[in-house]
Amino acid sequence: MRTQAELLSLLFLPLSALGHHSVSANFDPESVIEIEGQVTEVLWRNPHVHMTVETTTASGEPAIWEVEATSLSNLRRFDITPDFLAAGDHVKIAGNPARRSANGMYARNILLPDGREALLEANATPRWSSGETVAASATTLVTDGDGSRPDLGFFRVWSTPSRAPMLFPENVNSNFDMNSYPLTAAARAAVADFDPIADSPTLNCAPKGMPTIMEEPYPMEIVRQGENLQLRLEEYDTVRTIYLSEAAAPANPQPSRLGRSIGRLEDNTLTVTTTGASYPHFDVAGIPQSAAATHLEQFTLKPDGSRLDYTLTVTDPANFTTPVTLKKYWIWIPGVQVHPYQCDSTP
User: How would DSSP label each residue in 6-47?
Assistant: First the structure.
């Protein structure tokens, strides 16, 4: 069972951070180590890019390191393409050591053979050089979108800005007070017993359901599908159908991972109510969800078309003593596309 400090540290992080909580669960974010050697293999994939690096120990013996990095989707957003690194390259890597492996790490900086330094996280800073870097492009770091196309309305690709909150409790404060999530006794017990590795809802690329999928930091496209709408989210290649009338929706649907979503589009606001979500997780940090949960979403478009504000209210008496409201927003960055996620959990 976790200590109280461990429970609080997970419970009151924003959902955006928890979406990739396996990094902090598997690697020590408070420590930074360096290795230097030759890349022997690179696997470009989601949810994490993986590489092996052969180094030499102090006694002259070879050692193989297993190195993870952020997702292929994030590297694409950062304008880092697969051709920047290949087997045979001699590199230096700085990152966080693995918690359960002597020769494992999560890469944040890579010094490339040509002297450039690759920054693999949006908040990374150069470690070895003040020269050219391969890093997050300026377009991914903005917090305000491009308002030049208000005529597009809702129907375009929306991006989560890299340096903005992605899905926060409405009443969260700088101290992450305990009222941010009003858990029932049963929900608190479930969180206390949750193992972030063995019990991870996304273990082996298992896709997320409602409401957790809405935390995803990758692009989302809203499109018309006949008389209804679709939300096409890059993470796990998820497609949500929003029925714009009760008559258009399945009459007696079986519970499903994404549930049954009925929407209403009025002026600059899309309101969606989702029921029947069988996904048993409110988040990926251990808060459970019952089949009776109701999700009320509001997508509100700024008049200039630059930003899409989002509010999600979850009512689930089995796990929350009062409804929980979360907020985030997307921005419009011209040229961004939704790419295949194609999650691969094989080593």
Answer: HHHHHHTS-HHHHTTTHHHHHB-TT--EEEEEEEEEEE--BS
3-state secondary structure of 164: coil
Distance CA 340, CA 286 (A): 28
Q: Is 18 part of a structural domain of the chain? A: no
Q: Which residue has the tokens 């996280």?
A: 121
Distance in angstroms (rounded) separating the CA atoms of residues 337 and 321:
40
**Quick check: pTM over 0.90?**
no
Residue 339 lies in a domain: no
Burial of 127 (0-12, 13-18, 19+ CB in 10 A): middle
Is there a single domain that holds both residue 103 and residue 128?
Answer: yes
Task: List the domain range (segments joined by +) for residue 126.
Answer: 31-136
Taking alpha carbons only, the member of 90, 116, 82 closest to residue 35 is 90
Q: For 295-301, what is the mean pLDDT? A: 97
Check whether the bond before 211 is cis (ω within 30° of 0): yes
Tell me how far apart the alpha carbons of residues 167 and 216 are, in angstroms, rounded to a whole number.
Answer: 9
Q: Which of 85-99, 126-140, 181-195, 256-270 has the lowest mean pLDDT?
A: 126-140
- 17-21 long-range contacts (CB < 8 A, ≥24 apart) are 18/215, 18/283, 18/284, 18/285, 19/166, 19/212, 19/215, 19/216, 19/217, 19/284, 20/47, 20/71, 21/196, 21/200, 21/284, 21/285
Bridge partners of 106? 68, 96
What span, in angstroms and rounded, lies between the C-alpha atoms of 102 and 196?
A: 20
Contact at 8 Å (CB) between 48 and 108?
no
Compute the distance between CA of residue 134 and CA of residue 75 in angstroms, rounded to an integer: 10
| Same domain membership, residue 201 and residue 61 | no
Helix (H) or strand (E) holding 52: strand 50-56
Q: How many CB atoms lie within 10 A of CB 186?
A: 12
